[in-house]
Amino acid sequence: MGTKLILIRHGETKWNKAGRFQGNKDIELNPAGRKQAEKLAKGLADEKIDAIYSSNLSRAYETAQILSQEHGLEVKSYSSLQEINFGVWEGLTFDEIMSEYEDEFRNWQSSSSNRPPQGESLEDVRERVVKKIKEIISNHREETIAIVAHGGVNKILLSTFLELPLDKSWRLMQSNTAVNILSFYEDDIILELLNSTAHLHD
């Protein structure tokens, strides 16, 4: 038996709906996001979950709190699981970024070690996030853990654990309240589910 990691993206926010880069900005769930979280909780109600963790940003923490009500568990939140710090791009849409910072954006895209102005590189994020996830997994051997984080964080974790190029992590779709499942065995990691939103369509 391995350790099962249920990796979840938070529900929708007003900035998600508007297509704005959120990053470290603490944007709460909108009404649609709360409904998504409720459907997520119902979809995972029969899953045996031993522990629930989340980013400390409210959109992830609230999603985790709604999930926890089905399992009677306390949510433990960590700043190390926060979304990528996009620096001066936070609050802007993609079109606005391309209008004002196209060269910087292309530079950031070209290498996982490059940073947005006043922000973090993918390598920076991987260092803090993977360290925390490995710590959590080591504390829950042969158990099932749910972690509610962010689109960028989830893509970085999936790329890292599946040994995919980090600078291509944006090819992995992560919808709001998407469920991913990774099983960790002594000598291997198996991806069991990717970007599932089946719970939203029941």
Walk me through the structure.
- The chain has 202 residues and is of the alpha/beta class.
- It is 37% helix and 18% strand.
- The protein has six helices and six strands, in the order E-H-H-E-H-E-H-H-E-H-E-E.
- It has a six-stranded mixed sheet.
- Helix 5 packs across helix 6.
- The protein starts with a strand and ends in a 6-residue tail after the last strand.
How far is the first residue's CA from the last residue's CA?
30 Å
Helix content: 25-40%
The largest sheet has its strands arranged as 3-2-4-1-5-6
Structural class: alpha/beta
Q: Compute the gyration radius: what is it? A: 16 Å
Shape: globular
Order of helices and strands: EHHEHEHHEHEE
Index terms:
alpha/beta; 6-stranded mixed β-sheet; about 20% strand
Task: Give a brief description.
The protein is α/β, with parallel strands linked by helices.
What is the topology?
Elements: E1 3-9, H1 14-18, H2 31-43, E2 51-55, H3 58-68, E3 75-78, H4 94-110, H5 122-138, E4 144-149, H6 151-161, E5 179-184, E6 189-196
Parallel strand pairs: 1-4, 2-3, 2-4
Antiparallel strand pairs: 1-5, 5-6
Helix pairs in contact: 2-3, 5-6
